[in-house]
């Protein structure tokens, strides 16, 4: 393999992505240490703590059960800000549109973006539009940036997991990835699997209100799924995270599709889920608050944190223990 070439797997969020970031992109552009590599940057200006993030969306297909590329872009940006404990405020939207794209479809995408922004309480305040020749893009790509206010003094970041902490997820895993994959491949699943695409900022506000400084880490397990996100947290915090397979909430239809296709739902993308790593004394209080939210009815405690360097492992349903590592690439490319 020619090591000079960028592969599709370099955009997967898995091991190849991290190698590209660690070997080339981050050292060249910023030198930000591992502990500071989170869903958004937190910066200070004029005495105010601000969260700032950017992301690009290339999902295929652009319309899928439960959303489209427009709602995905807005909700994904809102969620990256919320994972730093910030209140999302403003978003930019950059559109790269291929010549020949449908104005009707564009109108639908834009309406979804506006609807998602209004629902999340954020404003789209600036943007840019470019049109490229036919065949030079795949219909439409969207880039977004977001700014939010951090209105507390809590340290919520991927490097803050502590021994004894518990890991909570707000619902079933893998729904988004399987919904997009099924639509892309034209699979007749004979069941309604929908993306979980949603803004999580209201839920995060509830979590912080319930847990305060006991909330140590918040992350949304998008590309690479729950497994990759927890591995990132374990590496940043230099801790070991142990999952219990029997506690993982999983939609029965998603579980069935994954079983048939040989996919591991731990690595399938989510767009309306978060992982909260909280101190044990606050775990039940936070879990109760999450379960009371419309996006947290299937919430569960799925693991715990212990001392040890950067490992994730899982107690299987049959009583064994297996290592959980990042995949080299991604099971399902172009999922967000």
From TrEMBL:
InterPro entries: HypE (IPR011854), PurM-like_C_dom (IPR010918), PurM-like_C_sf (IPR036676), PurM-like_N (IPR016188), PurM-like_N_sf (IPR036921)
Residue span(s) of domain PurM-like N-terminal: 38-150
Residues covered by the PurM-like C-terminal domain: 162-311
Xref: Pfam families: AIRS (PF00586), AIRS_C (PF02769)
Any GO BP annotation: protein maturation
Stated family: Belongs to the HypE family.
The protein's name in its UniProt record: Hydrogenase expression/formation protein HypE
Organism: Geobacter metallireducens (strain ATCC 53774 / DSM 7210 / GS-15)
